[in-house]
Design a protein that fits this description.
559 residues; elongated; mainly alpha; 24 helices; Methane Monooxygenase Hydroxylase, Chain G, domain 1; 81% helix
Length: 559
């Protein structure tokens, strides 16, 4: 019965430890969401910059698997090259060692202090209403759970002699290194977290049930096992995303082969080096894990291009399939595992949709002014694409709403539902303009020069407003609210003034009744486009795009 109870305690400890990792990682991820987005915005072909970004992002979200899945999503969307993906993956392997170093702190008499952070964090979460403080509570409670989990795992071995002896016997009888590597690989593949496996190994080292030389081989196997998540994520992706997953696997296989050979041949020397360098056995495991990943990255990083070319040879480009439809340019369901990255890419997708609608608006108004429908097919094709993107973003937003996000992110996600609807409506008006041009040409309607000048003046204001509204959406710059509101008032006033002017022209006989109807349809369409642009701008503070609600929210924030 004692062995069964100790096994339950061990399993419970693993569960608490992994819960702590997830809770702390979520808190760090959401708290540093904008920082992650800024890091992703600096992705370039500089492999060392990519390495740093991969290490930093993984250090924040506490999961190299999540970072790699995110990279596969970027690569699948076609917005990241294999060179960029490879360098970030190399950095991610170094960033994941942070959890092991944190776990190794349990070697010192600090477990009780850190464990108490779980209570402090939960207390903060229960009684605070401020988002940043709640995120801090999550980080503290997660850190506390990590140490409680480590203590439970260690206690399961220390307090139950039968389990302690059984585990000792198993590892004492297993001497062949490749079996230990295989064990680490399979075990990590099952729980899909090398950080969790390193935490378990550290607990076993602390309980003195696992010799250090055995532990190091298991650590090496864990680095291959963690690739399972990325391999699963690559299923159903394009060839470059599959290649990114293969690079992740090859990186860890190459590093493991090199270190297994070194450790196998120079076991005593390496163990002696670790013992001389780091006195605490738990830290010896964490430091070895860091050295392995850092050394492998430094060895492979200079040969990134050659590794990419090798992967391109073993995973060749397939014959392109005939494309009958559209595809989303930036978002991919694999990004959902990292909400800050998903939101960063959402902004790019929405901007792409807005740019398409703007191009169609320009084409539509120019068709009216020039009496030219030569770009009609392009407008109709892009309108179909706008509708496709609208549906794709809406579906992605629903999925993103179901994953863990910060409160501010939930508000932003909610606002985007309205934003894409407004952009889609702008696209509809652009299409209406070119359809009206067809009728204008067919009925031989001619606008007076005064009418053309008025349409141009109103259109110019709307384009200024368009750029400003999209900029506010992407940057969150509330200082421009007043400018947008002022320009919209000018557009509204123009509609009234120009409508009255046209009535005068009708009375004077300088314009026909038919031209008057189309003129009013165009300026009314432009005025409605301005309304939608106002909604887009104010959506960052009011999901419905209400100017009054947005202004009130800004006033509250400024105190």
């Amino acid at each position: 019965m004692g062995v069964v109870l100790s096994l339950f305690m061990l399993i419970g400890g693993v569960g608490v430890f992994m819960t702590g990792m997830k809770t702390m990682g979520d808190g760090l991820e959401h708290g540093a969401g904008k920082g992650i987005q800024r890091l992703l915005g600096k992705i370039s072909n500089n492999r060392f910059a990519g390495f740093g970004i991969g290490a930093a992002v993984t250090g924040i979200i506490q999961s190299s698997s999540a970072t790699t899945v995110m990279v596969i999503g970027f690569t699948n969307a076609g917005i990241m090259t294999l060179i960029q993906a490879a360098s970030i993956i190399f950095g991610a392997n170094v960033g994941t060692t942070v959890t092991g170093l944190i776990s190794a702190l349990s070697a010192f008499p600090v477990t009780g202090y850190f464990a108490s952070l779980a209570f402090v964090g939960i207390f903060i979460i229960m009684f605070s209403k401020k988002e940043k403080i709640i995120l801090a509570g999550k980080i503290l409670s997660g850190l506390g759970f990590i140490f409680i989990g480590l203590d439970l795992m260690g206690g399961a071995f220390k307090n139950y002699a039968a389990l302690n002896q059984a585990v000792r016997s198993v590892f004492a009888s297993v001497e062949f290194p490749l079996i230990l590597v295989m064990f680490g690989m399979v075990f990590t593949g099952i729980i899909q977290s090398s950080s969790a496996v390193i935490g378990i190994i550290i607990s076993m080292i602390g309980a003195e049930v696992l010799p250090l030389d055995r532990a190091l081989f298991i650590v090496l196997g864990a680095n291959i096992g963690t690739c399972v998540t990325a391999l699963i994520a690559a299923v159903g992706t394009n060839v470059n995303a599959k290649r990114a997953s293969a690079i992740h696997l090859l990186f860890n296989i190459v590093g493991t082969i090199v270190f297994v050979a070194l450790l196998w041949i120079f076991t005593d020397g390496i163990i002696s080096f670790l013992e001389r360098t780091v006195s605490e056995p738990k830290f010896q495991v964490a430091v070895f894990h860091l050295i392995f990943n850092l050394a492998t990255a430094l060895i492979v990083l200079p040969f990134t291009e050659r590794l990419v070319k090798f992967v391109e040879k073993i995973i060749p480009e397939k014959a392109p399939k005939r494309k009958d439809g559209f595809r989303l340019a930036y978002i991919d369901d694999r990004l959902l595992s990292t909400p800050p990255a998903a939101i960063y890419q959402l902004k790019n997708e929405v901007k792409g949709m807005a740019d398409l609608a703007k191009k169609n608006l320009v084409r539509g108004v120019n068709s009216v002014l020039k009496r030219d429908t030569s770009e009609k097919e392009i407008v109709f094709s892009d309108e179909e694409k706008i509708n496709f993107i609208n549906k794709g973003i809406a579906a992605f937003l629903i999925k993103l709403s179901s994953v863990s996000t910060a409160k501010s992110e939930e508000v932003y996600i909610g606002s985007l539902h309205h934003v894409i609807s407004d952009i889609e409506r702008i696209g509809d008006y652009a299409q209406n303009f070119i359809e009206e041009t067809d009728e204008i040409i067919g009925k031989r309607v001619v606008f007076s020069q005064s009418a053309i000048d008025e349409i141009k003046a109103m259109y110019k204001k709307v384009i200024v407003m368009y750029d400003m509204a999209v900029d506010i959406l992407l940057t969150g710059d509330t200082k421009k609210f007043g400018i947008v509101s002022g320009v919209e008032d000018e557009v509204d006033e123009m509609k009234k003034t120009f409508g009255n002017n046209h009535i005068k022209r009708l009375n004077e006989g300088s314009c026909s009744v038919d031209s008057g109807a189309y003129f009013y349809a165009v300026i009314s369409g432009l005025e409605r486009v301005a309304d939608h642009l106002t909604n887009i701008a104010f959506s960052i503070k009011s999901p419905s795009g209400s100017e009054r609600e947005a202004m009130a929210a800004v006033a509250r924030e400024r105190g």
